[in-house]
Amino acid sequence: MDPTGGTAADGVQDAYQDGNVLAGPLSEIFAVDLTAAMSRCAHCDSTGAVATLRVYGRPPALVARCPSCGEVVLRIVRSPTNTWLDLRGTVTLNIPMDTR
Amino acid sequence: MARAAVSGRLAARLRWQAAALVERREESPTARTLVFDLPGWAGHLPGQHVDVRLTAEDGYSTQRSYSIASAPDADRVELTVQRVPDGEVSPYLADDLRVGDAVEIRGPVGGWFVWRPEQAEPVLLVAGGSGVVPLMSMIRVRDMIGSRVPFRLLYSVRDPADRLYGPELDRGAPGLDTTWVYTRGTPDGWTRPAGRLTPDDLVRWGWPADFEPTCYVCGPTGFVEAAAGMLVALGHHPDRIRTERFGPSGG
């Protein structure tokens, strides 16, 4: 079940997406795009764009893990009335601001 | 016309908006471009995506992210959807949604995997399968605004039937070099044997690392990890490699 024309490694099921898919859910809460922000992992201290996190699940419940150590960096769950955001795996977010 | 591309809304909180299908085009035996009417669309940056939400009569709802294929064009947004066998959403969008039917769309979103027209450096685009979609938006915006930034596209597909946007890419554009990488079957007389993307392909058809191009890599996870790893090994700085990968939930 390779969606892309056979370029994935044979027999390897892609189990995750990347942090780009967080852009929509996070845009419901934040006024700036957070996927371009650099996050620092609370477990291994590595930094990288939120867009490069490994995201498991699908809306309304997503878990984003550090690509370096695999620990949970961010969790987000959307109910009809609330958004629940767990950032315990994130030390900092360094957010580029649109200066235009 | 260029105004919409440059302004690209990144900072607004977004709402779901009803979008009617106005046209469907066949891009390959398994991929369709869907043209939606989105009144008041504020434009987008190439590489951005939208979330598409479908809601059944019983209230069950599901959503997926799809990259935008088109350049900004008034109230029209084009998505290219690859049908995933046994997928929950893509077969419906690709085959069953009728012209006039509406879905809900939220976007544009994403500020990482984007090309901004003010970027002056050369650009390397590396696509695996339907990963070409957001890269095509970059190519189309470059063309629309008359940019002279040199682009090179390496596009890996299984065989010629799986090519998306083949006629448009074959017509090409000044300053855009396109190289096809066939992994299973090639056209007659093709000199490169069928096989996966190699570092040699990136050396021959990409940019030298010391040109400091920005590299955009999009495709399935295995493809993206392999290609990004090769680029790093060839000396491209990781900060200049932007990736977008999709897994089974693309279905």
From TrEMBL, chain A:
InterPro entries: DUF6510. It holds the Pfam family DUF6510. This is Uncharacterized protein. The lineage of its organism: Bacteria, Bacillati, Actinomycetota, Actinomycetes, Kitasatosporales.
TrEMBL record, chain B:
Transmembrane segments: none annotated. One of its GO terms (molecular function) is oxidoreductase activity. Gene3D superfamilies: Nucleotide-binding domain of ferredoxin-NADP reductase (FNR) module, Translation factors. Residues 14-115 form the FAD-binding FR-type domain. The keyword Membrane does not apply. It comes from the Bacteria. Keywords: 2Fe-2S, Iron, Iron-sulfur, Metal-binding. The keyword Cytoplasm does not apply. InterPro entries: Cbr1-like_FAD-bd_dom, FAD-bd_FR_type, Flavoprot_Pyr_Nucl_cyt_Rdtase, FNR_nucleotide-bd, MRET, OxRdtase_FAD/NAD-bd, Riboflavin_synthase-like_b-brl. Its cofactor is FAD. This is Flavodoxin reductases (Ferredoxin-NADPH reductases) family 1. It comes from Actinacidiphila bryophytorum. The lineage of its organism: Bacteria, Bacillati, Actinomycetota, Actinomycetes, Kitasatosporales.
